[in-house]
Known about the structure:
By secondary structure, the chain is an alpha/beta fold.
Amino acid sequence: MSTDFQAGRVALGARLRELRTEAGLNGKEIAERLGWQRSKVSRLETGKQTATADDLEAWAAAAGADVEAADLRSRLRGLESQQRSWRRQLSTGHRGVQEKYIAEYRATSTVRGYEATVIPGLFQTPDYARHLLVHNADLMDSPRDTEAAVVARMKRQEVLYETGRSFSVLIWEGALHAVICPKEAMAAQLDRLAGLIGLSTVSIGILPLGACLPLTPKHGFWIFDDRRVVVEIISTELRLDSNHDVSLYRKVWDRLNKGAVHGPHAHRLIGRARAALDLA
């Protein structure tokens, strides 16, 4: 169990204890109101057991603090879903992570994304993806299931061609110049990206180097149906679903989008990055 997860669970338990004591109840009394064993009350308050959403609803009601139920549920959502260590997720390789994202995209109609350092996985060629996955496996000391992971990542891209879906993605121009694979493979990747411009389900915006921007480029993030934000950092995947977090990231995306160029201008910037590879 991660230290951050346990710390969050202890903090949630402390809040439950506060609600109980504010209601003038001891552990035995609230257990009786809830119809639970006294040991469960103790485990929840000391952070040794993770509460369910139903547990929290019942606790708030038993403590006469129904108005606190929403806050408790929000704390639980953050505890359950906010941080997922890459080392733990990659303990059996990359394929499982890729397949998880296939399911995520299948359950989503509108995706807004932003990447500052890499061509997004939805747009990657097999060669480009292969090099990224190898680099990451080396960094994380995770099992190498590279080919299976590449196949899964390519399967994820099938959603780009399904009607009823929308993918609006912003890319910092610097990512077009980050050569993390042989130049020939990078050229093919840029060709692939340029070829997606104009696809009915896809909008690609490039934030130009040197342009005046309403915000600094920030880290990459993905917004799924305005209900969840996924942020990938080096050690951890963050999954944020509070209304505040989603609204904040949507505001950031909207502001970055104001500084992005689309259509022919975006195509020219991709072409400029390809020419800089100097393959002649």
